[in-house]
Amino acid sequence: MAPKRPAPQNRTQAPRIRAEQSGRFAESLCCFWLRIKGYRILARRYRGPGGEIDILARKANMLVAIEVKYRKTRADALFAITPRQQGRIAQSLQAFAARTGHAGDMRIDVMTVSPKGRIHHHINVWMG
Predict the structure, then answer these.
(1) pTM metric for this prediction
(2) What is the rounded distance in angstroms from the CA atom of residue 100 to the CA atom of residue 94?
(3) Which of 27, 66, 79, 125 has the most CB atoms around it within 10 Å of its CB?
(4) What is the spatial distance between Cα 108 and Cα 117, in angstroms, rounded to a whole number?
(5) pLDDT tens for residues 98-124?
(6) Using alpha carbons only, how large is the chain's radius of gyration in Å?
(7) Can you give the residue range of the structural domain that contains 29?
C-alpha cells in the first residue's frame, strides 16, 4: 500500500498570500520613503478599535494615519478604499491620539505603490 500523499494546498490561498507579501513590501517601501521625507514612524499595522492602520507617523506636530495600497494604477488604489474603511481608519486614529495624549493636528493620507515601485503620496485625502 502506497503512503498517503498530503492533501493539496488550497489554491485559493496562493493569490491571498501574494497580495499579503506585496502589501508588506509596499508598506516597507513607504516607510523608507516617509523617513527620507522627515516623518517619524510610530507604528505599523496598528490595530485600533475601528480597525487596522497600515502606518502611523508623525511629522512636526501632525499625526498621520497612512493607508497603503499596492495596485497597477493609482485610480485602482484610490477606489479600493471604501467609505466604511475610511471611517474605521479615522476611528482608530482618534483612539491612538487619545491613548498617546496627542493634542496636535491629525490627517489621513493614502500612499499608492505600483508594481514598478513608483510611490505616490496623497496628502489629507479624507477626514473622518
Answers:
(1) 0.81
(2) 10
(3) 66
(4) 22
(5) 999 999 999 999 999 988 889 999 999
(6) 18
(7) 16-122
